[in-house]
Amino acid sequence: MPPTQEDCLESFSTALESGSREATFTCGGSIPIVIEPKRTQSGDLTPRTDAKVHGQKIVTKPVTVRWGLDGQGRVLSLPGRSTQDSAALQDLVQACQPATFGRGGENVLDETYRRAGAMSTDAFSTGFCPYETGIIDVVTQLLLPPVIDEAWHNPGDGPEAGGEVVDEQTRRIDEAIAMKVDTDFVLRQGYRAIHTSQLPSLLADLGISAADEDELGDLVEKFDPLRTGSFASNVACELVKERMDAAAAEQACGQTLQLEVTERKRTFRGLRAELYKLNVYSSPSGMFKPHVDTPRSESQVGSLVVCLPAPFAGGALAVRHQDQEVVHRWEADSSERQPAIQWAAFYSDCEHEVLQVTAGHRITLTYNLFLSPGTGLLAGKPLNLISSRLPLVSRFQQALANPAFAPQGMYIAFALTHSYPHAHPSAFALMPKMLKGVDMALYEAVYATGLTCSLEEVNEMDLLMRADVLKDLDRSFDTASRPQGRETGNLDASHEVNSSLTKMEVLSDREGEPDEWEIDLGTSSSEEEDECYGSVRDERYWDLKERKQIRRRVTWIGSGRSKDLSSIFLALGNEAELKMKYSSVALVVKIPGWDRRCLADRTACREATDTEETARDDHMP
Ligand SMILES: O=C(O)CCC(=O)C(=O)O
Ligand SMILES: [Fe+2]
């Protein structure tokens, strides 16, 4: 029996939940400090960061912070090595102002919520640079991976396509890898891996034509982004498969590298880091209770915190998204042999908290991270996303080919898991480029399936959205005569996705509204309405009525997932900012009726009807 409509919807929801668990919402790292960096004869530091670019083993020099008025300039070098350094650190702490935060649209000082010192960028400068140390490259790749668009119905993709052949292939590759695995390495590292130098002979063992040097270099870079020189066996297997595909393509058309084709379809997104504050959280009570960072502009994606090498204890940074938590622990004492700069980045709509500092001073630089046009130079190969391989795409395709799924058509609203900054009064111009983590994966899947969709601001409390959303979706569906595959695509905001976030409603939406907000307009008869409203039945009334009707016509998936955070969004930020707010957003998708789907894809229709016939035959007595 083909799956029912409920089964299909359930499968979308399951795929999203697991995608959400896997999606990165925070990342972090550590950069060792070389206390005595190399100098030229004239005394300059060179190379400044001693970056071994190919090994990606970036180390850095001690960090300087300069502050003070004209004629009273001070400088602190960290890690501190002398009593003067300790005195300078105390002076820096003294020079900070008590840190405020945003509550209900105002900057407040409340040391029961945030106890820290702060210094603004106009009062200090630092020799630390997150670009120089490679942090921005890593954060970009992890939080804004490049995205690839591929044609719809890519043969060979999806669970149905040659599943057994693929499994057999994987088994064969795994066996060949197992023969190469170095047992000593397994014992040391605790997982099976092979070394880069073994790749050519591994390919030869499998009878796959050798890659030329450039291609092999590309593959190594793509599958070993941190240039560790070794590949866990599952990663090696993916690498081999990629070369296998390229070899097959070369053979089929007598041309070179399929990789080059893929290269052209990759869409890069970039990040720009803007230094925001220097903060000091000091023992015994420095802390910052749970909050989300106030978006500074529509293009703010995340926040970066860099922890300078001063000794302290406690002060872990806990970052949360939905029901997951990652804790960045940076406590360090001055006796550590290799001091380091530790850092963490996270999407700024994720709730986070600085736990109590129990000893010393925790000194941090905070940066706001904004979306910027990608350069294409950040090789960007490790985490690229091939839309047609997203689990959701095959679920959508299966559902669309199933006559029992939405026979008359339907609208599905997926509640996005992240929130997005949104300025009044401009539209949400940066959608869909701003989408984060699993939300981007969902959007990509809808896009790759060729469905018409719209990104809409929704009121999380009552799931109301713009009154014209369905009309607009129908209109763009008709003009685009979809669903159909698309040969190429990019994430340009100008493509068919509507993004209609226009009006800002920051206040809890019902405050001060007339009574009709409370009445379920959908159940009242028109006489009752006349009686109740008479002359107050104005434009707003009709708009509300329409919005409620739309709510009933849309099937929700995943609504309320971030509800627990909404109070924090409205109440607490790291700064009051009246022009910006986070919005809850839904991706509303139009599922065309079965007839339209048949028109768009006769083959799928025929196949599915055949299956249905067979199923019916099976049930005949
Ligand atoms: O210092 C940290 O780890 C985070 C600080 C923070 O959340 C903020 O300044 O908004
Ligand atoms: Fe924060």
UniProtKB/TrEMBL annotation:
Gene3D superfamilies: q2cbj1_9rhob like domain. It comes from Salinomyces thailandicus. This is Fe2OG dioxygenase domain-containing protein. Residues 267-373 form the Fe2OG dioxygenase domain.
